[in-house]
Every structure is written in structure tokens, then in C-alpha cells.
């Protein structure tokens, strides 16, 4: 995904002759800082990519996004003995509906009024909502794992839901 950025960092670290560079200490510190943060950035990108692929596969299920909704409900509810309240389920369903349909349509209308085109705005809104859904699902999954370390029942709630 970011192969160009990775190549640029490696080129700046290993291929640039120090005699030809401007010799700025700040630039060299920034390049080495980017180099050492590169493995962490790759791990974060792998997590986001994995979560996006899970969402793509989950979107084709019947009913769609059932795994993602259950992850978010388990992170919110965290009680394996009782099902989530009806209001909580309706709130999560509303936000899923807004993310999947509302946000792309609102952005499409906005872009149409600005003169960019309806479908252009719809595609941009869909991409933006996909990134938000990925972030929400990834945050919910991390919250479940963190609370499971403390021996809570969030992970068991996910199985129950």
C-alpha cells in the first residue's frame, strides 16, 4: 500500500551520500526517526488491512455486517449473561445504516451541489465511511481484547451475542 513511502525512507537512509546531503542534523534525525518507526507503521497498516478485509467479507453475509455489529455490541455491552438492550441494538443499527448509506449519500449531494458530480461524491463518501467503520470495528476489537486480559466477560459476551 505504501511501498513508495517505504522505498523513499530506505533510499534516504542507505542510498544518499552524506557528502552530497545538505548536512542538516534535523533532516538526518527525521530520516532515522522515520526509519525506526517503519516497522510499527507496517504493523498498523497490516492491522487496518486485515480489519478491512474482514469487513469486506462480512458485508457479503446475510444479514450484512453481522460480525462487525456483534463486535461493537460486545464492546459496548460486556455482559455475557444478558443480551444487549433494545435501545443499544437500535443505536448501533442506526449508526451502521448511516455509515453504509447515509454518509455516502450526504457527501454525494454535497459534491453535486459543489459541481464535482454525484457519483464522485458518493464514492468518496463510501471510502470515508469504510475507513470510519474499520476504525470503529478495530477499536471495539482492541477494547474486547484489553478487557479480556483483565478477566472480564467481554470476550464471552461476544460469543453470546
Structural notes for this entry:
There is one protein chain. The chain is mainly alpha-helical and 161 residues long. The protein is 80% helix and 0% strand. It is built from six helices and no strands. It has helices at residues 3-15, 25-59, 66-77, 86-114, 118-149, 154-160. Helix 1 runs antiparallel to helix 2. The longest helix is centred in the N-terminal third of the chain and has 35 residues, at 25-59. The chain is flat, with a radius of gyration of 21 Å. The two termini are 34 Å apart. The mean pLDDT is 79.
What topology does this entry show?
Layout: H1 3-15, H2 25-59, H3 66-77, H4 86-114, H5 118-149, H6 154-160
Helix pairs in contact: 1-2, 2-5, 3-4, 3-5, 3-6, 4-5
Name the features.
6 helices, 0% strand, 161 residues, mainly alpha, single chain
Structural class: mainly alpha
What is the arithmetic mean of pLDDT?
79
Helix content: over 70%
Rg over CA atoms? 21 Å
Strand content: under 5%
Summed up, the helix count is 6
N→C terminal distance: 34 Å
Name the quaternary structure: single chain
Run of helices and strands: HHHHHH
DSSP summary, beta strand count: 0
Q: Shape, please?
A: flat
Unreliable spans: none
The major beta sheet can be summarized as:
none
